[in-house]
Specification:
alpha+beta; 2 helices; 37% strand; 142 residues; Immunoglobulin-like; 9 strands
């Protein structure tokens, strides 16, 4: 009898689980969306970025925080187009590893030290335009 009740309970919950999983589909990031529906803006802070990209470096890690009002989810944080990994809930902490070769390719004259800007964007699940920030990295000439 108990197993029959368990089956009925499981069958009753199946639609709820299906709806919950439907919300986990891939999210199409559109930086031009701004429907004004978020109750608060996202605040992005870069907490760690290398000041200099050494000639022998293979990658750099940029870390930061993103904060928004209670009850609003941050859907995605990108650093120069690379998806950041959430290191704490709701991207309150995040990090992204950028290939050094991609950063070096943006330097106009590789024989001269040059500063480049790394773009950071965070978008909330409610659809507002992404918050933006930048970090500067000096690319050392070889």
């Amino acid at each position: 009898m108990a197993s029959h009740r368990s089956l009925i309970f499981a069958a009753a919950l199946a639609p709820a689980f299906a709806l919950a999983l439907a919300g986990c589909d891939d999210f199409d990031f559109d930086p031009d969306i701004d429907d004004g529906s978020c109750p608060a803006d996202i605040a992005i802070t870069v907490t760690a970025a290398p000041a200099t990209l050494a000639p022998t470096a293979e990658a750099v890690t940029v870390r930061g925080t993103a904060e928004i009002g209670a009850g609003v989810a941050i859907r995605r944080v990108t650093v120069d187009g690379v998806d950041a990994t959430a290191t704490s809930f709701n991207f309150a902490g995040w990090s992204a590893q950028l290939p050094a070769a991609a950063l070096r390719s943006r330097v106009a004259d590789p024989a001269v030290d040059q500063k480049i800007e790394v773009a950071i964007a965070a978008v909330a699940a409610c659809g507002d335009a992404p918050a933006k920030a930048t970090a500067s990295i000096l690319v050392d000439a070889p």
